[in-house]
Give the backbone structure.
Amino acid sequence: MKSKQFWQQVFSDVVGNAISGILIAALAFITIDQFYRTPDLNGLWELEVEVNDTSYKAFKGLKVKYQVVLIQDELKLSGTGEKFSEISIEDEKEKELSGKLRTAIKLKGYIEKNIFSTNKVVIIIEEEGSIRRSSTFYRLDKVSDNRMEGKFDSTIAMAHGNAFWSRLKSN
C-alpha cells in the first residue's frame, strides 16, 4: 500500500469514528433527556402520615394530614405548609384542626436521581409545635406525577411510619 493511500485510509477511519462518536453521544443525551427527566414536584400537595411505632402509646395508629406547598429548584426542594387534620385510631373520625393546633411547617429536601432504580425524594420537615420544635425525615419514591410514598422518622415521640403524598392540583 502506498503512503498516500495509507494516510487517506487513516484519515477516513478517524473522521468516520469521530462522526460515529458524536452521533452516539447526541443520541445518548436525547434518550436520557426523554426517559430520565427530573420530576416536576412544584405545587400544592397533601401529606398523610400513619404512625406505626412510637414511644408514646396514644400516637400509635394516629394519622395526621398536612397541606404543603413544594417549590423546586432543579433537584432542591423547599416549601411551607400546615397540619390541618388528625385521625385517631380510637374514634377513626377526622378532626379538623384550627387555631394554635393548626401548626406551621417548613421543609427542605432534594431529589436523588438514580439511573438503575427509581428516583428518591428526601424531605426534612420542621414543625413549630405548641410545646417545642420537631423534625421529621421522609424518604419517598415517586409513584406517579401526582403521588409519592415512603417512610418517615420523627422526633415527635420517636414516631416512625408510612407517608403518602398526593398532589392536590395538577400543574
Summary: The two ends are 66 Å apart (CA to CA).
